[in-house]
Design the sequence.
């Protein structure tokens, strides 16, 4: 899913870090309750968080050994230190360096190695490609089959559609916290997946919701009562008749939006916003025919 789709809020309860308001997290049957940090990884579900979250003052090797210290005697898993260094030679070469001095790619490798050292049954990878060079990202994706072959299942959060489809057996697309498309990765239509991912023609006649479309062509049409209906959309926010903040950076954005702050940076933005305040900013032909309020 795109930014704002709700991917991290899905991973946190899955990692048993938060109790969900509804539903549950189950692994091989029983529900897993939220656990203290010291016990969470023992559930078998281990998260590699976005941003790596390493201990910067510790060396690469000390970061990796943290899960081993939490295990009891006789609990050593298949991912020994030697096995991890074989999987991540870049980490082996920098094992004695503090994490704060490592490159982004090296830090990501340490974060994944640390998670594997906890002997997970399910590995949650949150945006492993974020901010990294394509060559480094390719090297990480090439390691996924080896990790899976060890018996570890992987739940991967990714914005790159092509990478996600190529690496996975099953794909779920999120939009505004909802699953809008799912199926076998090999059978999903990429073009059909792009539409909910970027909001193309999305949010049509969403009569009560908010946040209905992002980066979408013709996004948010006839969203008659909700707020935040479209962002960065060509023709976005058209006829959002009562909500506020309906469009941003949109060509013809905010047209006939009666609410407050309906368009920003839009060509012909804020036209015919008949009752709201502050309807357009920096717009060509902006604020036209805002008939009853001020500062339009």
Sequence:
């Amino acid at each position: 899913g795109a930014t704002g789709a709700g991917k991290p809020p899905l991973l946190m309860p899955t990692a048993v870090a938060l109790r969900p308001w509804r539903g549950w997290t189950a692994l091989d049957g029983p529900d897993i309750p939220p656990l203290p940090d010291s016990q969470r990884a023992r559930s078998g579900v281990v998260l590699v968080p976005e941003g790596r979250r390493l201990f910067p003052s510790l060396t690469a090797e000390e970061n990796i050994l943290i899960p081993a210290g939490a295990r009891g005697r006789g609990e050593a898993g298949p991912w020994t230190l030697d096995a991890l260094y074989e999987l991540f030679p870049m980490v082996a070469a920098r094992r004695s360096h503090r994490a704060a001095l490592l490159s982004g790619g090296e830090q990501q490798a340490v974060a994944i190695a640390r998670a594997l050292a906890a002997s997970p049954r399910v590995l949650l990878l949150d945006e492993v490609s974020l901010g990294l060079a394509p060559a480094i990202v390719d090297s990480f994706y090439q390691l996924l089959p080896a990790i899976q072959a060890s018996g570890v299942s992987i739940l991967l959060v990714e914005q790159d559609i092509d990478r996600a489809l190529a690496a996975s057996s099953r794909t779920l697309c999120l939009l505004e916290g909802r699953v809008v498309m799912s199926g076998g990765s090999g059978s999903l239509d990429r073009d059909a997946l792009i539409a909910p991912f970027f909001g193309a023609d999305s949010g049509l006649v969403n009569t009560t919701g908010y946040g209905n479309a992002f980066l979408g062509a013709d996004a948010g049409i006839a969203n008659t009562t909700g707020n935040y209906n479209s962002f960065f959309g060509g023709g976005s926010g058209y006829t959002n008749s009562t909500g506020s903040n309906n469009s941003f950076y949109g060509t013809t954005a905010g047209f006939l939006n009666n609410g407050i702050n309906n368009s920003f940076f839009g060509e012909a933005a804020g036209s015919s916003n008949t009752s709201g305040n502050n309807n357009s900013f920096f717009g060509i032909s902006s604020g036209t025919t805002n008939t009853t309020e001020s500062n339009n």
In short: Residues 201-208, 213-219 have pLDDT under 50 and may be disordered. Strands lie at 45-48, 122-126, 153-157, 170-175, 178-184. The longest strand covers residues 178-184.
